[in-house]
Amino acid sequence: RHCTDTVCCVIFIVVILGYIALGIVAWVHGDPRKVIYPTDSYGQFCGQKDTANENKTILFYFNILKCASPVVLINLQCPTTQLCVSKCPDRFATYIDVQASYRYKPDQWNYFRQFCKPGFNNPRKSVAQVLRDEDCPSMIIPSRPFLKRCFPDFSTKNGVLTVANQTTFRDGRGKTRNVTDLREAANGINNVLDARSVGVKIFEDYAISWYWILIGLFIAMIVSLLFLVLLRFTAGVLFWIFIFGVIGIIGYGIWHCYWEYDHLKGIPGSDLTVYDIGFQTDFRVYLQLRQTWLAFMILLCIVEVIIILMLIFLRNRIRIAIALLKEGSRAIGYIMSTLFYPIVTFILIAICISYWAVTAVFLATSGEPVYKVMANQTLCKYANLTCDPETFNTTNVTKLCPGAQCTFAFYGGESLYHKYIFIFQLANAFVFLWLVNFAIALGQCTLAGAFASYYWASRKPADIPLWPLFSSFGRAIRYHTGSLAFGALILAIVQLIRVILEYLDHKLKGTQNSFTRFLLCCLKCCFWCLEKFLKFINRNAYIMIAIYGKNFCTSAKEAFFLLMRNVVRVAVLDKVTDFLLFLGKILVAGGVGVLAFFFFTQRIPIFAQEAPMLNYYWVPLLTVIIGSYLVAHGFFSVYAMCVDTLFLCFCEDLERNDGSTAKPYFMSASLHRILGKKELSPKKA
């Protein structure tokens, strides 16, 4: 063994050091409070401790009618004065009415004044001047906090949109407005609030069912481990049971869908279509429609037919794949520690994601407050120009543009660092992709080295090295960091290009240029295929690196041509094995999912009293199903890597050896016999 791709190794280490430096610089300049706390028109945080706004945690908008949508509000770009308040208004009121009655109704004035600029207490000032200088809002409307901002308190009464049970309100400027004007000003606010309601219910469901979800995931882990252990002894029987089990589960699903479809026959409203009822936040409504169950039944029937046809035409190839799986299960049986290596990969990727996310947030919040002139753009030529709030009142802007104000707009800066924030974000994303791919490559090379030590042992298990997994991990880190980083770099470049293409596609989605959309679609498709191809080449290159210790390019070339010389075996054995392992994942996730379904819907009499009362039973159910699939995927990925490594070793064994006494095969007798080779010659002791 010797160090490979040392230049790339040095570059990789330098990039990591630079990435750490970028994180430190971002942490010095960034301020996450800009994300956590809303900011008023003076650039001050709402709710920040040890400030005048410590007890004022909510942002209030003087004239929400000037705001185009909730997105504009959240981005702090609404062209109206914004103040920090302790609570949102709970009533309708106009400044004209409050000022006219302040002498004999001081309580109303004191209530309204808390939504005026700090320190303003001059009810004798003319209404025109107050509204011009925006000392106070022209009106307040009943609101409730959402995302720490005051939004109109919308509700629906008998199908009519209302605010505090009213459909109209006075805007304080002599006009009577309809509540729908507020809805248009806050475009889509009802959908946002509905989403918040659904989100609260989902959070409540997680809060009371999280331990049952963990129990379901633990069961999935036990089933996956049991499955891999049993494969060593009964791979063929278990896989055929799993295959027919999947067919049986889908068959039960078809019968259940038909039963629900037939049961709803004649029930009023069940013949409506999904289009008729539109989008509903309560998904149980769709389960009352016959069309829903008919669609489920047709979909399951199609899946059932496809699986059966594949089993009929690939039955002989499946037998060969099962033989290879038995050999893989035997290898894992000798090196059981490999089953838990995915935890290491998960931890490394979790560290990368955490560092990237934190750095991205600090970069996004790097900058000083930028103030702009807020005025009527059609009348003031200074509108949207930057300004200094400390000297603004001494300029001619206030004279030329009556009512103009210098208010906080966003965070930015003119320094060299602030000009290249976008470049730093791209660098952050690129190094993140590089590190994630390196962590995956390290895991693949480590597992390949461990399983290769099993295959090339003349006497199994006597000649298998002590602690093969740790030895393989040490070799990969000590000698092949550069090669792994090289492969990860190529993949990261392609993935970054795909991210940029997706960003451009999102930006150009509304364009009418058909050629541009077609070209972008073709590029996305090409780079998707390139990424899949590179992942396949890298995976096999890492196996060759683990076996022979050569550099990345040489290993990738040898692996590619070795696979091309055995392309039929690759297509049959490798892909059929992947298919069978996928069926295993589906059965684990489906079995645990069916158990979770009966539990959370209280259909298991023994545990009916233990099941929590949920708003949406599908919330923990989907979590258990997806989590079980990911748990099974983690364990089965080790198995897939084992099979791929043994298959590549087998192809290399066939080309380098001929079964003679001088060049004996290293494959096991059972694998040798099933793959149709002549009887083994005795190996050297």
From TrEMBL:
GO terms for cellular component: plasma membrane. The chain crosses the membrane at residues 7-28, 210-230, 237-255, 293-314, 334-358, 431-456, 477-501, 579-600, 621-641. Keywords: Antiport, Cell membrane, Glycoprotein, Membrane, Transmembrane, Transmembrane helix, Transport. It is a multi-pass membrane protein. The keyword Cell inner membrane does not apply. Choline/H+ antiporter. Choline transporter. Belongs to the CTL (choline transporter-like) family. This is Choline transporter-like protein. It comes from Dromas ardeola. The gene is Slc44a5.
